[in-house]
Amino acid sequence: MSINATEFTDIDPGERILMGPGPSNVPARVLQAMSAPCIGHLDPYFLSIMDETQRLLRFLFQTENDLTIPVSGTGSSGMETCFINLVEPGEEVVVCINGVFGTRMADIVNRVGGELIEIHGQWGRAIDPEAVRKAVKGRSPKIVAVVHAETSTGVCQPLRDIANIAREAGALFLVDMVTSLGGMEISVDNMGIDAAYSGTQKCISCPPGLAPISFSSAAMKALNTRKTPVPSWYLDMSMVKSYWGADRKYHHTAPINMIYALREALRIIAEEGLKERFARHLLNHRALVAGLEAMGLSMLVPETERLPMLNAVCIPEGVDDVKVRRALLNDFGIEIGGGLGDLQGKIWRVGLMGHSSTRKNVLLFLTALETVLKAEGIKVSPGALEAVSAVYS
Amino acid sequence: MSINATEFTDIDPGERILMGPGPSNVPARVLQAMSAPCIGHLDPYFLSIMDETQRLLRFLFQTENDLTIPVSGTGSSGMETCFINLVEPGEEVVVCINGVFGTRMADIVNRVGGELIEIHGQWGRAIDPEAVRKAVKGRSPKIVAVVHAETSTGVCQPLRDIANIAREAGALFLVDMVTSLGGMEISVDNMGIDAAYSGTQKCISCPPGLAPISFSSAAMKALNTRKTPVPSWYLDMSMVKSYWGADRKYHHTAPINMIYALREALRIIAEEGLKERFARHLLNHRALVAGLEAMGLSMLVPETERLPMLNAVCIPEGVDDVKVRRALLNDFGIEIGGGLGDLQGKIWRVGLMGHSSTRKNVLLFLTALETVLKAEGIKVSPGALEAVSAVYS
Question: With a cut of 0.90, is the ipTM above it?
Fold first, then answer.
């Protein structure tokens, strides 16, 4: 078997404005940090970078949790890490499902032999805490799990009530923060969260490939007192913690350059400040929605339940979903996402995440969308620009 | 909780010559490719990069196997992927153990509930195929598993005899190629290998973070006819194959920039040619050994069982392992590895992998080691340079 090496050209992805459900645009500084020379994973310099990455992650999660690390896989590996380390066969796990990622949680719980208790909510709406209260009544679940920011629908799940219900039931509270971390207020310690995971390619604006996680002392106790081994060697936090801890006990080789990138992305967040960053996400979201509504488009999610970084826009009757997205990509270099599952063809998912959450992108996207819709013969109400300006003024 | 962003400086790992058990030095072209703009994981351009990466990986593995992809995790996730997709609870798995990585295989088999049949060999020697023949006699194991290149000892395991034994027993033949792939002859198709995995940071000279794997049609049949679900969602190849296949069905977000890097590293291999690359690894290995032996040092592994890319050197009596390695790192910027497990303090592991396998590195390392040993008051025989030159001439 041979191959002709000259068939392959230099990597050149061109320029994209990433306004889909992730990845978001990665700042040049992060790409530069990522391309620093690769060194040994036990080199003293790299160990110092690991320490700094942990400190910065604790700041972002707002936690003192010792086990706060980037798992060596993408966001979904973070989800898997949380469940497989904390659930043993036969244990009850309450999972709130109102989109793709709650569904994925349930799938994982089944694979590890957990006793799954599903709470189903409408896709596009938050889960009612009363439904959780009912579900845990008379039970003692090991875990109550929710998705903070459902990337498939744009819904924000309020956490405090469910955190209280979980605590009263003696359960660990597990939260998916893949899309919310870095884009809206989160405090793992103050919100009573025991296990949280995220991805790097959303509001952190680092390339995909790592899954930041954090385990509370209660979660660590559950891990340390397991009766059965963690079903995965690769994601077994009882071993991985010794590599990231003071022991530095070899487990697997860390993805060195990805960690350079994450550290730089977190440093940029620290420079901006959390409060300022969250305010920026909210402002650009409000401007986008004002513009879309002025154009006559409507949002899937009621105003009080919307995420600031992921906007689910209802596709108007008679509009060809794929054709519009293709025109945005080919003519304007703008990527947005389509709907998943039952929402396929019904919504667009417009991300304003991390480095992509800018006034410039809001304006460009609205103008581009208007242009594409008009070219398709769709009537668009005037006044988007004025509505957007009013938000920024 | 606040943090002071000015405490963190720019990433600057300095310059290291990576001659340990991995990572190896990464060519500038690979680092440049990795720092190209991150784009969407379903962007048409990225899909073409996925296709090209698969073609290049098939070339490297010398296989036509459809499922030939980089798993989104480091090398160990490749090991886990092979076992958890192909083993069901109660099935017999024969694992050959003569180092750390065979031990890790056994650990994973236990976690997935496989019936483990261990074949133990001496650390520093290859496994005798007769031991495998005995172990499978009267059994019908699902898998026979070996480590081709035991990174913990520097031993090369001949594959053909064990492949035949596995085939006769009706078992799938599973091979760890983490350290061998890209540095010595391998043909997944011609050698009768059903499942193989590797890492990117050894002889491929790409940063760590991906695990190339390949499954034969027999392995795919075993996967497709499972009676129980794969215990991991993240590494479930029955789903991941649809993302890498023509369907492009969303599973998880691929680590975009890492895949840019891998594609470039594979392209460099294609440019060099496999035959030329393997000859280079062998030549530099022979030169290194000639120099070490001229200095009066000895190798752990008998000549016929040595790997070309990982050299286990016995630490002479009275020499302080850690002190020597620290001096090599601090005074010469050279990283080599120490021993693992029972071999800790007894061997050094000197890698000549991928981009690090050069005549220049062989000479520098020998000179640096001689300098450090002499400074420690150790007697070193003269003539290393002559011995090395004789190999290259």
Answer: yes
